[in-house]
User: Which sequence fits this backbone?
């Protein structure tokens, strides 16, 4: 079974675009790895269009996952997917919570 990596990028469009080369390099170095991304609605298409990304999960920071409790529940759902590596190029409290719980 291939390893699974999770990239958490819930920042703006420019940050998402700058994250794509990192994802491409990871896929080149680990070609059998499944790479999933946590993104926001406005960047979903950017990651979905990448052949290096297997699945995109939406973190709805302004509605569905606005509360701390909802964010924690989202993170526990990610944890069930057993990621070998979790990378968060965007530094924020919410992203840190996701990494801490999902790992």
Assistant:
């Amino acid at each position: 079974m291939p390893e699974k990596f999770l990239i958490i990028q819930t920042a703006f469009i420019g940050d998402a675009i700058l994250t794509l080369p990192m994802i491409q390099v990871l896929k080149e170095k680990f070609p059998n790895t499944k790479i999933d991304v946590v993104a926001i609605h406005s960047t979903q298409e950017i990651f979905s269009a990448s052949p290096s990304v297997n699945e995109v999960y939406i973190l709805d920071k302004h509605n569905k996952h606005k509360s701390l409790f909802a964010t924690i529940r989202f993170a526990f759902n990610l944890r069930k997917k057993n990621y070998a590596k979790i990378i968060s190029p965007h530094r924020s409290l919410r992203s840190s919570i996701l990494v801490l719980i999902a790992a």
About this structure: Residues 28 and 52 are 9 Å apart (CA to CA). DSSP finds four helices and four strands in the chain.
